[in-house]
Design brief:
2 copies of one chain form a homodimer. Chain A is an alpha/beta fold and 320 residues long. Chain A is built from 9 helices and 12 strands. The longest helix of chain A has 19 residues. Chain A starts with a strand and ends in a 15-residue tail after the last helix. Chains A and B meet through helix 3, helix 4 and helix 5 of A and helix 3, helix 4 and helix 5 of B.
């Protein structure tokens, strides 16, 4: 068995831990920064941990691909796998802490007008004008997507004493007690008019495409805030921009977009009260995220060799 | 008895509640936006709720001044009161929620490099470079000043799963259980080398002046962050700028300064990794803060007329 690890961010300590697990199961192991630098003899590995997109598309020998991301939309399109039986796992569960911190940060930046004050001080101006601030305290928060990210966010948001935190997901069930209530997706239309802060952490699937459409954006109360950290496909970006420009929404913070990097000249660059970040809510620069990511792969590596079900298995048809 | 309320931010509902309390005690009441617009007959009131600085300095009749701020340094200088027996109360307790949210926001902005990403996107640039992020999770947090602000911050910070939250105050005692430990100020030097995030919420007194001096800033570990929301007098600003410029500190977020507004041409405007906000962490634009502020005054108004001790009494000699 040959294992190829394609992850430029991992440390020597991570490599040692992966090597120890591989040795335990008598597997061969190689590391490379990317698919462009694969060592000889590892062109058709059995297992890849990393963004092995080309290998998956070309090699019928690949049995298991573990991607370090939570989102798998890029590898769930038809033709992504030469071996139709190839197992796909993801690293959903590694990003919750990092992305939850991002959501809190950008929500407060918008609600407290820090986006405005900070942009003023960046240009050397002491902003004397006092803008009306909002607060997480007493806010009605709706979390669309109650997976790892939504859950870690709810835990943290709870400490800010919001009026309520409602989770919304396909099943309508979550084990996380920080949600005051968890509703099924078909309750979304009834909860939006009572939402001051809408947090979206959905995967890109056919069901989530433009789930936040124009009608739903307009159903939010005046002054509501939207944060999207899932996938850009979930929001009608034109409708969002219209409802920021016309003053309906209090603000929006997007870390993900239909097209990334956000194209030059795109209307969103000039949209008022839109806080843009370049897909950085969850990335592997945070030590905790990287540690967890490697730990999850090793956990499934042991499961794989010991014949147990893999824990982070993705349903390639559903796309998550 | 004449009560003068000088608070341009309060709503009609707030006025009605104050009026109801005044009527109960047969007191006369007037409202004005500032000392420049005082109605006839209220030039020498018995009680002022607001920034009645001139009245306090000139009128021997003033018996009680309630300021809507938490800090009272501006009214504790010699000569501030014509009537040496005038009671002074403040509104410490109204700002904790607002300022705690500010501290979390700016800490995460620095740790997650959102200051950099946001300044890039403000200029229309999709920042492709990935900077090393830090996290509140597993951080060692020290809170200098464990009053209302430090306490509300600790409650919220706890949800982010830091390694520890140590409170530091004069008494070494706090009722807030979110602190893992509370130490006396003389333990500051021993705790600073084990502090990743130092939060300062101290009043301006002779004891707190330059409490964070050059030696103490240098004692922090490399990459540590500082947030100051108390008073600017507590930090040696030159030493802070030196330790940001030389790369020792990871960042600093100052909402308060020795001189406000921060003077044009001041070195701090150009200091790297310094997040400047124009004294907005606690202001009366947040509905919760304003409600609490008015509520606290009414509480003490009842105490005053019913002969009880005032709850928000300031020791004018100590300055808090």
């Amino acid at each position: 068995m040959k294992i190829l690890v394609l992850n430029p961010a991992i440390t020597q300590e991570h490599k040692d831990r992966i090597a120890a697990s591989a040795a335990k199961h008598n597997a061969e192991l190689a590391f490379a920064a990317s698919e462009a630098e694969i060592p000889e003899g590892f062109e058709e590995p059995d297992i890849v941990y990393g963004f092995g997109v080309d290998i998956a598309r070309k090699s019928k020998k690949l049995k298991w691909l573990c991607v370090p991301s939570a989102g798998v939309d890029f590898i769930c399109k038809p033709g992504s796998f030469a071996n139709e039986d190839c197992i796909l796992t993801n690293s959903s569960g590694a990003y919750g802490v990092s992305i939850a911190e991002h959501i809190i940060a950008v929500s407060l930046m918008m609600m407290r007008c820090l986006t405005v004050y900070y942009s003023q001080t960046l240009s050397g101006k002491w902003g004397a004008e006092r803008f009306h601030q909002k607060s997480l305290k007493d806010s009605r928060i709706t979390v669309l997507g109650t997976g790892d990210i939504g859950t870690e966010f709810a835990k943290r948001a709870k400490a800010f004493e919001p009026a309520q935190i409602i989770g919304v997901c396909r099943s309508g069930v979550s084990r996380e007690s920080s949600f005051d209530k968890v509703l099924k997706v078909d309750a979304l239309d009834s909860i939006l008019p009572r939402t001051d802060l809408l947090v979206m952490s959905l995967p890109a699937t056919s069901e989530t495409e433009d789930i936040l459409n124009r009608k739903r954006i307009e159903a939010l109360p005046d002054g509501a805030y939207i944060v999207n950290v899932g996938r850009g496909s979930a929001i009608d970006e034109e409708a969002l921009a219209d409802n920021l420009d016309n003053g309906h929404l209090g603000g929006a913070a997007l870390d993900v977009f239909k097209s990334e990097p956000l194209p030059e000249g795109c209307r969103l660059w000039k949209t008022d009260r839109l806080l843009i970040t370049p897909h950085v809510a969850g990335n592997l620069t945070l030590d905790h995220t990287l540690d967890k990511n490697v730990e999850m792969f090793i956990e499934d590596l042991d499961n794989y060799f010991e014949g147990r079900d893999l824990k982070y298995m993705v349903d390639r048809k559903k796309g998550y």
